[in-house]
Amino acid sequence: MDRVNLVTYFLRPTIRKGAINMRKLKRNGVQVKPHVTRTAITNLPANLTLKEIHKIFVRYKKSQGMSFRTVDDYEITFGYFLDFIGEEDLKREEITADLLLDYKTYLIEKYKPNTCNVRLRTMHAFLKYCYEEGYVMDPLHKYVKKVRAPIDNMEALEIDEVERLLGAVNQ
User: What is the Cα–Cα distance from 87 to 100, expressed in whole angstroms?
Assistant: First the structure.
């Protein structure tokens, strides 16, 4: 078999009782992605809004076995982003780097660095998913980076302070 026929053989899914045998595809090294509605003309995902893409993202994360708390955090922090943009639903073309940088600036002005990082981390995961699945054409997740947080330096206890603590336990 020549190379072209070999590739098409391995990429051709086998049909078993009306379903595609995804295990064969995975076994042969083919990346299997979740079902996405695509238009016939552009081969891009249909004209979805930001909220619709986020619903697909949450469903994908649930299918990965993420804990309830993690999925709930994705939804809560996405709600914060919607509050920032004014509850309006954006089309995927309206998600820009400028919008994300404005959101990051808003978080820095309003919250402490650790809170900003929690919210930015979930946005980063969402935007990376959007880029990898073709919902957005630009790697917007690269614009969402952590905020530099000050390092808390704790001083060690002196020997007499440790002895006082241990003495208080014995009393």
Answer: 15
